User: What shape does this take?
Amino acid sequence: MFDLHRQRSGRTGGLRRWAVPVAVATVVLTAGGGAIAKAASAAAPGHAAATAADGGRGPDGFGMTMGSHAGHSSSFTYNHGFYCDPHVSTESATGCEAGAAAKVPPAKDFDPLFITVPLGFTAKGLDCPDKLTCVDHPMSLDMTRLATALAPVYKTTPEKLTPALRNFTTPGHDHFIGTKAHGKAEWWDVRVVGVTDAATYRSIQRHQSWTYLNGLIKAKNKHVVGPIPTNMFLFFAAR
Assistant: This one.
């Protein structure tokens, strides 16, 4: 396993969507021993990739998801498309990358958004379920920088896993924030926390708290990996 702790912060003290319309080869990482099943994925009509030409922005969407803050549910209201820094090399159709931080953020001030992702098992009640792209989220991302770390989880080799990770369908996940930023809409820097144990994941969901999640990270819990940097930002107001 690996432990990436590269973090950027916006304001001090704060914790602090999309593919080209063509079929792409992807992989579905499933529960039950981490079986790997090949599949085909097609982008929704009308969606566009975030590219250098459009400043890394995905198309605007309007809607809401849920997240967790200080032990309670929080509603996230979106009205801007995602941003994936085009200055970071990536092979995904969306320009989004997990494993490398953005070089050029979309704003001077921002807060981190921590997303927890079940690895090797299926979790219920996710803020953004599997096979359903949430509003203003990218539909896929490049995860090849994580191939070495993910290969043991799914009982394969980095070489076999890498091709499937180049344009991987965004996995189901939950959202955690350490501040509501006074309810103001702003950019949030996406950081991934992988969880490899179902019981640990259920405990994280029950606590609904970044403080609890961060405690597991600081304690170097063997089932919790991250935070992993990305070049992705989402824009929403938390209430």
Observations:
- DSSP finds four helices and eleven strands in the chain.
- Residues 23-49+62-238 form one domain.
- Residues 1-48 have pLDDT under 50 and may be disordered.
- The two ends are 35 Å apart (CA to CA).
